[in-house]
Specification:
The structure is a homodimer. Chain A has helices spanning about 10-20, 35-45, 55-60, 70-80, 95-110, 140-145, 160-190, 195-205, 205-210, 215, 220-235, 245-255, 265-275, and strands spanning about 5, 25-30, 50, 60-65, 85-90, 110-120, 130-135, 150-155. By secondary structure, the first copy, chain A, is an alpha/beta fold. The first copy, chain A, folds into 2 domains: about 5-155, Rossmann fold; about 165-275, N-(1-d-carboxylethyl)-l-norvaline Dehydrogenase, domain 2 (Orthogonal Bundle).
Chain lengths: ~280, ~280
């Protein structure tokens, strides 16, 4: 029986852990420093609780890191400090260069490493996702999730390739949402929102519909800021324009006030939050 | 009979002129400083040729400016220098602040002014477009294009509102094309283009299809750079993130090599042009 250390039981991490649990893995977590929400999720899922990350990593064969992008390097370092001796999988939405940096740290500590990227929603019976892997032997991970809603796909190439793929996917998916939210904020500021919607309605119906995505995205925006920063760095490192995702990072930063909302804000609440300056008077 | 001064007979300007001509206006243009392509278009359309902008504006009741955005202010100034005494319509893709600046110049010179923005393709029997107007009495323009494929729509509000609406529309339409071209360039650079297309194909079919738009856009990119700069300024003036369109401006700048191509480049040619640095070796 494989023991998987789940770092940490957030929304995505818990769903990933449940996939492994359902096909026979022992999924364990460390309660130290976790929010009450994460504790509740882990208890509900029946994961084995450990009191510290050291205790957790002592019993684990594989550790998977699923955390907000801005916390990925610190988390990797805490795994090294804990003296982990298994396989470490970084499944976070980080730049390829960040993945390579973590890989170097792991290599120096003698820890086996896989770069990973999850594309899709938290996996469940009704919602399949894909865990892309690169930079090592993916067999243990393929076995861990075989037959679950989390498809595992190893792609050719070194550490960084899986993260690059995830960055490209999110660069459009989340970047387009941020761009449209920014456009609606501008339209509101300039007093042309209804004229824009009238023009979009016949000629760009996808824009109209997609611009509403910002409502659901608003509650996750607090962790998307870091992801957009990582994506901007990915473009910059490649010699490509980084402005789109620096803009997207700022849009999501202005939406982080919606983090603890129980229901999605209205589109007017979203555009007001993005618009810091008052509406232009006509 | 109204005489319309067409400044200048580019692709869009010529189509707008033909609309007015077909319902009875005399459409005139000035051959001074125009490209052979523009001259040919104006001759083919049967517009009345004048030898200078002074001659042209002396006979015109209305002058309409349809030029690359970066040339709009200079063109407006040349209209003032020529001593024009009619109605000046700026239909360029410029920032509201630029439209207000031109409006002030016109006001100081005693020239009647309308802010305008064209949304849609060059109008023809098979392709309707809309000319939005703000900041003045739109009646003369409504009459000029009545019953043509160019719908005229006056929107409430001062000078700048029509330009703001056009900016919002293009911010998404052209911004999304630039974003997707940048994403495909990154995917090519990182060696994950086929994996990205495989992932897009079922989950984001619109992204796959829309990313191909960059092929047709490439030949127009030379004049979209200025439009993206104007849009970035529009966001900045409103206190909103301007990075998306600074990025879009740079993407289109890298595509200006395709200006004189007779056929659209392939998507590989597009991504190679955007990627200045060599592809990452796997």
């Amino acid at each position: 029986m494989t023991t998987l250390a789940l770092l940490h039981p957030g929304e995505m991490g818990t769903a990933v852990g449940i996939c492994a649990r359902d096909v026979g893995a022992c999924v364990a977590w460390s309660s130290a420093g976790r929010s009450e929400q994460s504790r509740q999720r882990a208890r509900d899922a029946g994961f084995q609780a450990c009191e510290s990350i050291v205790d957790l990593l002592e019993i684990a064969d594989i550790a998977i890191s699923v955390c907000p992008p801005h916390a990925a390097v610190d988390l990797a370092q805490s795994v090294i400090s804990a003296g982990f001796a298994g396989l470490f999988v970084d499944a976070n939405a980080i730049a390829p260069a960040t993945a390579r940096r973590i890989s170097e740290l792991m290599k120096a500590a003698g820890i086996e490493f896989l770069d990973a990227g999850i594309i899709g929603p938290p996996p469940s019976a009704g919602a399949r996702s894909t865990l892309y892997l690169s930079g090592g032997d993916a067999l243990a991970i393929e076995r861990l999730f075989a037959g679950t809603p989390l498809s595992v796909r190893a792609i050719d190439g070194p550490v960084g390739v899986a993260s690059a793929l995830k960055a490209c996917y999110a660069a459009w998916n989340k970047g387009a949402t941020a761009l449209l939210a920014n456009v609606r904020a501008l339209a509101a500021h300039e007093g042309v929102e209804s004229a824009l919607l009238d023009e979009w309605n016949p000629s760009q119906p996808d824009a109209l519909k997609r611009s509403e995505h910002a409502r659901n995205s608003a509650r996750k925006a607090w962790r998307w800021t870091g992801e957009m920063d990582e994506i901007a760095a990915t473009f910059r490192d490649a010699g490509l324009p980084d402005g789109f995702h620096m803009g997207a990072s700022e849009v999501f930063r202005r939406l982080d006030i919606f983090k603890d909302r129980s229901d999605p804000p209205s589109i007017d609440e979203v555009t007001r939050a993005i618009n810091k300056s008052p509406a232009r008077r006509l």
